[in-house]
Amino acid sequence: MTSHSEPHVRWERDGTHTACLTFSHPRLRNALTLSMYDELEKACDEIDAADAVRVTVVRGAGEAAFAAGTDIREFTSFTSGADGIAYEHRVGRAVDRLAALRMPTVAIVRGPAVGAGTILAASCDIVLATPDATFGAPIGRTLGNCLAPSALARLYTGFGRSRTLQALYTAQLITAAQAHETGFVSEIIPPEALEERAAALSSQIAGCAPLTLAALKEADRRVLATTVPAHADDLYATCYGSRDFAEGVTAFLTKRAPVWEGR
Fold it and tell me: Which of 1, 49, 63, 192 has the fewest CB atoms below 10 angstroms from its CB?
């Protein structure tokens, strides 16, 4: 059994119709390990099998962060582009599984939801955020890797193409206020009122007809599926197999600025 002090993803029932799904790695602001992505897949399977659940609330443990991307230490063993391809496919399965939950999902975002954290939030249907929440994937100045086309499609839907590309090209984060302006964030809630608002919204959703909720969720999935592009294994291999990526990982872990070579 996994200790609650170890990085993990868990879910539990909150009443009859609500599931609470939590990313827990507080020491690293809930950054996800590879095993946590696997646990996320499994948790979503279990939630979908719980017939009474009509809404799932997604959150990071504690109050410091939603999810600060992937635990960078996972990349230290990468030696080739093939490792990057395998990583993107593994993470992609978990993200897609969260997006495919049969019921509506509500993300509660406190603090950073960056890198994979932004993609996970974008895979939820409604995002509630505190004023200090931030979003984005500043990989252009940190690791030198890339994003999956399916992730870009979700970000375009949430932030718009221009805002998304500006944030990615400049490696800047998007504030809660900016995310609310684009519609990515549904509501900005003061920290002290966030749990009460999330509970009220979940209760309101759970009170609706379950077949209608499931049909709306599936219709939304089908609409978004038309924008998901083909694979990008060539892009993954180029970035993750590069000297720049190895430099980015080393620089991040040693807390210095990377020196890019473009190869």
Answer: 1
| Token pair listed for 208 | 């609706």
Rounded Cα–Cα distance for residues 204 and 7 (Å): 32
Q: Nearest CA to 139 among 252, 38, 2? A: 252
Residue 79 backbone phi and psi in degrees, to 5: -125, -10
CA atoms 124, 53, 89, 247: torsion sign: positive
Q: Cα separation of 253 and 18, whole Å? A: 38
- The HSE-up count of residue 231 (CA atoms within 13 Å, CB side) is 8
What is the spatial distance between Cα 50 and Cα 184, in angstroms, rounded to a whole number? 28
pLDDT digits (tens, 9 = 90+) for 64-95: 999 999 999 999 999 999 999 999 999 999 99
How far from chain centre, in Å, is Cα 122?
6
Q: Are 114 and 135 in contact (CB under 8 A)?
A: yes
Q: Are 133 and 109 in contact (CB under 8 A)?
A: yes
> For residue 179, is pLDDT > 50?
yes
Cα torsion angle, 78, 174, 169, 259, sign = negative
Q: What are the structure tokens assigned to 198, written together?
A: 């999330």
Task: Calculate the dihedral angle through the C-alpha atoms of 25, 35, 238, 154, rounding to the nearest 10 degrees.
Answer: -70
Contacts of 7 (CB under 8 A, 6+ apart): 24, 25, 28, 32, 33, 35, 36, 71
| pLDDT value at residue 169 | 97
Q: Look at residues 48, 53, 103, 124 and name the one whose alpha carbon lies nearest to residue 214.
A: 103
